[in-house]
Amino acid sequence: MSNVIGIAASKGIAIAKAYVLATPDLSFEKKKVEDSESEIERLDQAIQISKQELEKIKENARKSLGDEHAEIFSAHLLVLTDPEMINPIQDKIKSEQVNAEAALEETANMFVDMFKAMDNEYMRERAADIQDVTKRVKAHLLGVTFPDPALIDEEVVVIAEDLTPSDTAQLNKQFVKGFTTNIGGRTSHSAIMARSLEIPAVVGTKTILSDASDGDMIIVDGIDGIVIINPSEEELASYKKKQEDFEEQKRVWAKLKDEPTVSADNVHVELVANIGTPEDVTGVINNGGEGVGLYRTEFLYMGKSELPTEEEQFEAYKSVLEQMGEKPVVVRTLDIGGDKELSYLKLPEEMNPFLGYRAIRLCIERDDIFRIQLRALLRASTYGNLKIMFPMIATLEEFRQAKAILLEEKENLKSEGYDISESIEVGIMVEIPSTAVAARQFAKEVDFFSIGTNDLIQYTMAADRMNERVSYLYQPYHPAILNLVNNVIEAAHAEGKWAGMCGEMAGDSIAIPILLGLGLDEFSMSATSILPARTQIKDLSKEKMTSYKDDFLSMDTADEVEALIRKISKQ
Predict the structure, then answer these.
(1) Are 220 and 178 in contact (CB under 8 A)?
(2) Which among 116, 124, 99 has a CA at the least distance from the CA of 43?
(3) Calpha distance 446→453 (Å, rounded)
(4) Can 363 be counted among the known catalytic residues?
(5) Residue 534 CA: distances (Å) to CA of 147, 537, 543, 561
(6) Rounded Cα–Cα distance for residues 475 and 526 (Å)
(7) What CA–CA distance (Å, rounded) separates 70 from 60?
(8) DSSP state of 262
């Protein structure tokens, strides 16, 4: 039994066996073989097992993520049934009398190099498919378990170095009861996805991958940020009770599901949700969300071999808008770059991609991609209450350029005979300090602000939010951050506009009273945070919190601000 401390990333208690998700050691020695036929037979068996796995993964992906995500695995299956690929491997085993592993790798590398050198982007993408499939077959030749989140069919806690967005997208919450990783923070994509999936998670443990083994009994305490490996009977009983208490707390919160979000002195604010896919809307509705404050559209582009079509995007946006009815849906346009890459979009290598060619900067330059998304959004606008938000805006010129492209496409669609809503609000995400400082200028032209604190904090504090060594600088309550947030809210209100927040700070129980006092109009958070936040706001007086506004803004440190909030909470 041992305890590992990490960062509580998604609330709840998970108790299940460990499933270690790590790339196995696939090293081998090239050998001469006497019996080529038995070597070919080994290869065939490894291919057949790989086919069966991929068929199962494809079906799981189709059920949980839809047909378009499942098509990735169709491409992988094609590689394994292509005689142009398989026959040369068999020929090499016979003619050179080498082991199957060597013949597989050398042949695959030849095709990979050949495809990578082609001008056709579709053919270059086949190189990645061959690499993925080769790893799987090689693992079976070596008798090594090849981990696959989509193949999990029993209750487990997933343990990994980190989970990519595509890894987390494959997790089936019916079986994956929680996860824990070596790296990451509350704002890493794996943590955000865990909250969307409503499964407990502890990230940034540093050592969990070396401390735990496949099959160990694991407790993930996503409330206090603790992972317990092979707990004692007493600990197991204690955490089962804690699990039951948390479920009971959720039932109490659920009583406020259909209630408006009103403070103790009867001031209404909106509690809305951050989502990544149309499937996430169910969680928003089940948790009493008053709208969608951030629809991260990049998940439509990820885990694919090519850009999504206008029609695919239209169907996704239409689905979200229809499900939400009259409630507002704020859609963020494509925010790719930084830690979110598209393999089929050959972006330049950059020294610092977080400060580089990404989000609106990419969209304005690659307006062929941008226009397709805007057309899909505009076409979907008549199916609900759509608001469009541009990310990573640094200058007024960028906003004006992006809006001009939007208005051009609106006119194009009208001339093609499409109905377009005339009440679409167009706003920006405030995540760059210069934009927060210049909020008064922006407020004259935008319809709304949504403050993206995940990036605003890391850019203001010059501290990478994914880097554990500087995680102490990720300080949402720092007076510098609070003053920037206050500047944005005041600028919006001076022009009769509204200000929201879609960063993780919006659902933070320490930050909520401060933000209420600063006058934030809309709080957008993980769906699972909505009911706890509504319960908290119900007991807060807006007037009282506003009376502390100058204190929050004039303090010296984040610790002082937090201490004041805790003191107020006890009164």
Answers:
(1) yes
(2) 99
(3) 19
(4) no
(5) 40, 5, 17, 22
(6) 19
(7) 8
(8) B
Query: Which of helix, strand or coil describes residue 166?
Result: helix
pLDDT on residue 124: 61
**Pairing status of strand 328-332 against strand 292-296:** parallel
Tokens at residue 470, please?
Answer: 């500087």
Residue 449: C-alpha distances to residues 137, 453, 457 (Å):
50, 12, 16
Q: Look at the alpha carbons of 195, 201, 205, 210 in this order and tell me if their dihedral is positive or negative.
A: negative
Selecting among 76, 363, 478, 502, the annotated active-site residue is 502
Q: Please identify which residue in the block is written with the tokens 């307006």.
A: 367
Residue 165's H or E segment, with its range, is helix 165-169
C-alpha R_g of the chain: 26
Tens of pLDDT, residue by residue over 428-456, are 999 999 999 999 999 999 999 999 998 99
Q: How many helices and strands, by DSSP H and E, does the chain display?
A: 23, 16
pLDDT attached to residue 339: 56
Kindly name the residue from 69, 140, 189, 478 that is annotated as catalytic.
Answer: 189
Question: Would you give the DSSP letter of residue 144?
Answer: -
Q: Are 312 and 300 in contact (CB under 8 A)?
A: yes
pLDDT at 216: 95
* pLDDT tens digits, 214-258: 999 999 999 999 999 999 999 999 999 999 999 998 888 988 999
Ranges of residues in the chain whose predicted pLDDT is under 50 = none
**CB contact at 8 A, 446 and 430:** no
DSSP lists the bridge partners of residue 8 as: 202
189 is an active site residue: yes
Contacts 24+ apart (CB under 8 A), 539-545: 539/264, 540/263, 540/264, 540/512, 540/513, 540/516, 541/263, 541/264, 541/265, 542/263, 542/264, 542/265, 542/267, 542/516, 542/517, 543/265, 544/265, 544/568, 545/513, 545/514, 545/516, 545/517
Residue 398 pLDDT: 97
Domains of the chain: 2-22+150-241 (3.50.30.10), 36-141 (1.10.274.10), 262-570 (3.20.20.60)
Tokens of 520: 């934030």
Measured from the Cβ of residue 77, the count of other Cβ atoms closer than 10 Å reads 17
Q: What is the pTM of this model?
A: 0.72
276's tokens: 């990544």
Q: What's the rounded Cα separation, in Å, for the pair 225 and 204?
A: 10
Cβ partners under 8 Å of residue 429, min gap 6 = 332, 389, 390, 391, 392, 393, 450, 451, 452, 502
Q: How many other C-beta atoms lie within 10 A of the C-beta of residue 4? A: 19
End-to-end CA distance of the chain: 41
Helical packing angle, 479-494 and 558-570, nearest 10°:
70
- pLDDT value at position 331? 98
Residue in the structure block whose two tokens are 């119900």:
538
For residues 347 and 378, is the Cβ–Cβ distance under 8 A? Answer: no
Name the residue type at position 462: A
